[in-house]
Structure formats: structure tokens, C-alpha cells
Amino acid sequence: SNSYYLAYGARNMVQVLNHRLVPLRMLSGHPKRVTTVCFCGDTTLVSGCDGGAVISWDVVTGERLATLLQTPIPVCVLVFQKGLLFSGDEKGIVCVWKGMSGSEAAISRFQPFAEKIFTMDCSDHEEGMLLAIGYKLGTIAIMSVTAGSDLSLLHTLKGHDMDIFKVSWCRRSFQDVYVSVLSKYSQEDIIVSTSRDKSVKIWDGKNDRLIRSLQHPPKISTIRESNLNREQPWVSLVWTSSGIIASCFSGCIACLEDSETDEGISELKWNSFDSPHAHTKKVFSMCSLGEGLVVSTSMDRETVLWSNNEVVNVAHGLGGFAYGLDISPLSPNRIAVATGDNMVRIWEPYQNKVIQIWQSVRTKVMVIAWHPYREGLLSFGTEEGRVGIYDANSGTMNTSSTYHEKSVYSMSWGYVPTKFKEDPLKTALYTCGGEGTILCHKPKELGNAAVKVNSYIAAENKYKNQPPGRSAVDWEFESKVLAVGCTNGVIEIFMAPNLQLLSVYQYHSRIINKLRWGRNEGDFINIMKSASDNGGADNHPGLTHQILLASCSDDNKICVQDMTPIVS
Predict the structure, then answer these.
(1) Neighbours of 563 (CB within 10 A)
(2) What is the DSSP secondary-structure string of 122-189?
(3) For residue 468, what is the DSSP state?
(4) Side by side, which strands form the sheet with 130-135?
(5) How far apart are CA 394 and CA 557, in angstroms?
(6) Which residues, listed in sequence order, are joined to residue 57 by a DSSP beta bridge?
(7) Cβ of 139: how many Cβ atoms within 10 Å?
(8) What is the DSSP string of 324-381?
(9) Cα(7)–Cα(24) distance, rounded to whole angstroms?
(10) Which of 154, 175, 458, 541 falls 20 to 30 Å from 387 in CA-CA distance?
(11) Per-residue pLDDT of the chain (568 residues; tens, 9 = 90+)
(12) Long-range contacts made by residues 256-260, C-beta under 8 angstroms, separation at least 24?
């Protein structure tokens, strides 16, 4: 918006941020994926979706103001200029609103061409406003907008051979740019376009004349270009007060500058934004905030705020659900995130830095766990049952040769289930899969078969009956105690080194989803003592801390139990 707000579509919701990329609120109400957003003034936002709905919002309160349109045709683009709102859809239909009051708003409908609309932009002529429409097959239609909001086809700009990705008009308020090339033309009539044919073209939009044709910005050699960038390319651009800013297929961003050759001949040349925080994949969208500020979003799931060709701030996003999160016990500034976009992310919030790990992952990451005392050692489990260990210090990745039959839902670093008097810090990774089994993986022997912990526990404790399936594991590392959650709601407590059964609890009636040990003091101890006075917990006079076990289940309950007597 013109003052403070920024918005983008995220699945079937709209995320609202301020100009420093700080999230403010989420707007939900669309039935399908949000495809376009547009501010109508400072605080009114309009959004469109694949379900054909166009909805207006108050971004200050988060209130849904009205549903302006509801059709089965996906909405592709929204544009607002001088009190008029324009929408374009996959059938080539353009709708015009004079207001955002809801069903009473006057609506006009036009279909200049029966093709999918990719992009639109409206000029800011004082009289005779022009609407540019970019279509899938390479046509750009210039429409004249009358005072009564009627549209008439002025002419078409023919020069692109493939999909039109973006059109952007030069504004009257912009300073004189590209004087050597555009001095003969009225600045408000000039429009720039980009296409899948890898060209950027500058036009006299009002008079149907091609002024200059350029190749899109060159790829920076340090950026790795993926197959997806080449097979499904996308180029975005925006005309700002300092000139045209565009992206290339690999994600680098450049500004078109007016320069001179050694012979003194004027030419237009791309100057790339070379920054270590730049995008690494194709850029989907860019918008100008004024005063030299530009915001870009990319397939790398990052939103970047630029100021005069430099990165000012980065908002990191995810390409799927966040299934797991763990804070490093040795470096609290390191947060590992397990996500549904086939990546592991290590986020350092104080430096606003994110390391993306995708090698050997290949599928959704369901759970993640840092090693308790080896800095930088990170384990993860995937949807297809694979277990891996990543060393953040060396960048090496190793995967276990033993798979779970179903997704890995729980993991914890603990002790090898044998006597470990000779090496008290000999650790292993315990993982629990959806099939109900626990495996113990030795980090230095991932090529060997993992220990089947269910069978080991049954033999060590001489079970006579078939035990229930296991669903969660967590070690209390300092006390050498293992908690195991079961599919019937039972929680079992075992003691290292031989995993001897200490106690069995049942607070839940359904499957245990998560277990977590913790040591607390201060206010939490007072809460537990208060519960003790009411008969809800044991009191331990003189203790400086309590050892607690939290559990959650499909029965919608979270239970916290004082395990100090058992552990001690």
C-alpha cells in the first residue's frame, strides 16, 4: 500500500506485513489458492483466488468487508487505479468495479480476447486512462478507459511470441529516465513488458510503437540454475522511480541503466544486484514501495526488501507445513525446522540467516532433533521412513541403511542399549515410526542394521504378553531415563543401560503423539506445589528443580507429570 502495509498470498490465505517485513495478521476466507492481491487505498485490500472469488478486507482490523465476485473461473490478476478496480481471469474476462461496497458495487464486464490473462497494469494519465492486458499467447491489449468505466480496445502490441509475464507503465511522477532513448516520447505513454521468449520490450503504448527490445537480465554465474527454472521459467519486472527492475530465469535481479560505450554511444545495460542474500530461484513477483524500496518474492520461499540495489531485510518462508522444530541445546541461536517441502532448514534468527538442506532428503521431513552435546550434529526422519544425520559444521549428510515401514514421527538422542561403563557418552539415535517400532541407529555405523528396540525391551524385561505399538520416544539425557509412548495411551519409563522397565503410567486414552522431558524451577515449581496442595502432584521439599515429563495425545489432552521420584 502507499503507507505501511504489504500483502502476499499464501495457500488459501493472505499474509499482511509492514514495510519492514514484520508479519501483522493472516486473512483467511478463500476456498482455494490465493492468486492475486491488490491494495485499494491505504487499508483496503482485495484478493482473488483459483475458486473465482474476489474478496475485500480491512487490513487494520482483519475484517472481511465484502465478496465482490463469485464465479467458477479462476481469477488471475487485480489492478486498482483512480477509484477503479480491474480483475482478469483465465477466460479473458475483465471486470470493473467503481467501489468496494459489496453487491451494490457497479460492475462492468468485457472480454477483449478469449485467452488467459497473465498480467494487467493501468496507466496514471490525467485524462484517458489506459489499461494494458498481457495474455498467455503473447498479445498485449491496450484498452481505453472512459469516465463511465467502459473499456474499448485501442490497439494490440505485437512483438512477443510467448506468454506475457508482466507489463508495467511508467508513471508521471517518475524522474526522467533513459533520456537517450525515450526523450522523443511522452513519459506517461511508455510501457515495458516481459515474456517467456526471454525478451524485455519498451513500447509507446498509446501510439502502438516498439521503442527498444532487450534480452532479460543475464544470469549471475554464482547462482545455481535448477532444471525447474529452465523448464518452467518466469520473469518479473517493475518500473520504479529509478528505472526498470527485472529478474532473470535463475532468480537474479537487475536494474536497467542508461550508460555510454567507450565510443560515447548511449546504450541501455543491465546492472545486476549482486548480494549474498539475493534469491537463488526464479522470482515470481516484484512491487515498488517508493523511495527506492522494492520487494521481491521467489520460489526459494523468501521475501526480500531491497533499497538502492542492496538487501535491507529478508523474510524467510516455507514451501510446506512445519512438521517439527528443535532448538540447539548448545547454540540457542540455531533452530532446526522440519518442513513439508523436502527440506531441512537451520534458522539463525539473530543474524536472520537460513541454511537450506535438500541433498539426500527427497521427501517431507516429519521430525528433527539436535545432538545433546556434539555441536552442529542434526538428525531427521522423513515421510517415507528414512533416517538421516547432517553435520552442519562439515556439511556432510549420512543416511541409515535401516528404514521404517512408515513415516518417522518421533526421534531422540540417547544411549546405546548395552552396558556403557567404559564410554559413558556413547550415544545413539532412537527413532519411532508409524508402524509402531523403535529403532536404534549408531551414528558411526549407519551402514549396519539398526537395533530393534521393541524386541530388545521385550527380551530384557521378559514380557509375557505382546506389548502395544510404540508411537513416541524421548530421553532424559542427564538422568539416563527413556520415556516411550504407546498407541493405547500408555507411557513406559525405562532405565539405561539395559532399558529396564521402571514404571508404567496411563494418563491418556488414545495414541501418544509426543513426549518431552524438562527441568523446571521457580514459577513452574510453585504451580506444581499448588497442584500438590490440591492432591494433584507430589511435593519434594528442598529440591531446586523438578524433572517433568510432558505428553500429548489424540485425546486432546496435554499432561505434565513430576517424574522426580522415579528418576532419583
Answers:
(1) 23
(2) E---SSS-EEEEEETTS-EEEEEE-TTS-EEEEEEE----S-EEEEEEPPTTSPP--HHHHTTS-GGG
(3) P
(4) 117-122, 130-135, 140-145, 151-157
(5) 41
(6) 45, 64
(7) 17
(8) EEEE-SS-TT-EEEEETTS-EEEEETTTTEEEEE-TTT-S-EEEEEE-SSSTTEEEEE
(9) 10
(10) 458
(11) 766 899 999 889 999 998 888 889 999 999 999 999 999 988 899 999 999 999 999 999 999 999 888 889 999 999 998 889 999 999 999 999 886 655 545 578 899 999 999 999 999 887 788 999 999 989 999 999 887 678 899 999 999 989 999 999 998 777 677 877 888 888 889 999 999 998 999 999 999 999 999 998 887 655 455 544 455 678 899 988 888 999 987 788 999 988 777 776 778 889 888 787 888 888 999 998 888 889 999 988 889 999 888 888 888 888 888 999 999 999 999 999 999 999 999 999 888 888 888 888 889 999 999 999 899 999 999 999 999 999 999 999 999 999 999 999 999 999 887 644 444 557 899 999 999 999 999 998 899 999 999 999 999 999 888 889 999 999 998 888 999 999 999 999 999 888 999 999 999 999 999 999 998 765 555 555 555 555 544 544 444 678 999 999 999 999 999 999 888 7
(12) 256/178, 256/200, 256/214, 258/177, 258/178, 258/179, 258/180, 258/181
Task: Please provide residue 363's backbone torsions phi and psi, each rounded to the nearest 5 degrees.
Answer: -155, 180
C-beta separation of 415 from 497 below 8 A: yes
Beta bridge mates, 256? 270
CA-nearest of 112, 72, 71, 75 to 90 is 75
Yes or no: say if 325 and 336 are a contact pair by the CB < 8 Å rule.
yes
**How far is residue 167 from each of residues 7, 238, 366, 369, 541, measured CA to CA in Å?**
20, 8, 41, 47, 73
Q: Please report, as a single letter, which amino acid is at residue 59.
A: V
- Return the residue matching grid coordinates 479473458: 92
Specify whether the backbone of 485 is left (phi greater than 0), alpha (psi in -120 to 50) or beta: beta
Cα Rg for the chain, rounded, in angstroms?
30
Strand blocks (E) in 11-150: 13-18, 23-28, 34-39, 44-49, 53-58, 63-70, 75-81, 84-89, 94-97, 107-110, 117-122, 130-135, 140-145
- Within 10 angstroms of residue 168's Cβ, the number of other Cβ atoms is 23
- How long is the chain? 568
What is the pTM for the complete model shown?
0.79
